[in-house]
Amino acid sequence: MISAGVTGFVTGFALILAIGAQNAFILRQGLLKQHVLSLVLFCSISDALLIAAGVAGFSAIVAMLPWLPLVMLLGGAAFLFAYGAMRLWAAWQGQYEIGAHQGETSLAKVLAIAAAFTWLNPHVYLDTLGLMGAISTQYGGVVLRSSFAIGGAVASFTFFFSLGFGARALAPIMQSAVAWRRLDVLIGIVMWALAVKLLFEL
Questions:
Q1: Are the beta carbons of 69 and 137 closer than 8 angstroms?
Q2: Rounded to two decimals, what is the model's pTM?
Q3: CA distances from 145 to 47, 174, 178 (A)
Q4: 34-72 residue pLDDT tens
C-alpha cells in the first residue's frame, strides 16, 4: 500500500513539475501575492478529482478494452518524450519572460483563468485520466489503487501549495533567464526518464 502511494506521488509530481501555462500563472500570482490560497486550492482539488476519476473508471474501461492500457502507455510515453523535447528546445533557445501585472486582479478572474488552464488543457486529461489511470491498473484491488490515487493527489497539493506560497522566496532566482534554462533542462530530462521507465514496464 505504501509502495503504491509513493509511486502515485512520484509519478504525479514528475508529471506536474513541467512549467506550463498553469504553473507559470500560479508562479506569477504567488509573486504578486494575489488570491494564492484560493488559486492553489482550486488547482489541487481539480487535479485530485481528475486523478480519482481516472483511477476509478479506468479499470471498467480496461475490462471492455484490454488493449487500451498498452495504447495509453505508448501514447503517454510519446507525449512525455515530446514534452521533454519541447522543454529542452526552450532551454536551447533561452528566451524567457514572466510578466508581472502590478494591478489587483479579482478573485473571479483569477479562478476563471485557472479553470481555463486546467480544464481546457488537453494534456491534463492525458496525464490524469489517461496516464495516471493506466499506471494504476498494475495494482490489484481497491485499496492499492486508492493509495496510488491518494499519492497522486498529495503530489498535486504539495506542488501547487509549494509553488504558490514559495514563489516569493524564488523570485530573485526565477527572474533570471539562466535559472529558467536550467529548470527546463531538468524538466526535459525528468520527462524523458519517465517515458523510458514507462516503456520498460510494458
A1: yes
A2: 0.67
A3: 16, 37, 40
A4: 899 999 999 999 999 988 888 887 666 767 777 877 777
Give the three cell numbers for residue 135.
499506471
Taking alpha carbons only, the member of 10, 12, 181, 190 closest to residue 84 is: 190
Q: Which of 76, 75, 74 is nearest to 15 (CA)?
A: 76
Alpha helices in the chain, H assignment, sequence order:
2-16, 21-32, 36-64, 68-93, 107-119, 122-125, 133-136, 142-174, 177-200
Contacts of 198 (CB under 8 A, 6+ apart): 73, 76, 77, 80, 135
Of all helices (H) and strands (E), which one includes residue 202?
A: none
- Structural domain boundaries of the chain? 2-94+104-200
CB 7 within 8 A of CB 148: yes
- The Cα 152–Cα 6 span in angstroms is 8
Torsion angles phi and psi, residue 136, rounded to 5: -65, -20
Please provide residue 87's backbone torsions phi and psi, each rounded to the nearest 5 degrees: -70, -40
> Given its phi and psi angles, is residue 35 left (phi above 0), alpha (psi -120 to 50 degrees) or beta?
left
Q: How far apart, in whole angstroms, are the C-alpha atoms of residue 162 and residue 149? A: 20
Nearest Cα to 179, choosing from 193, 169, 164?
169
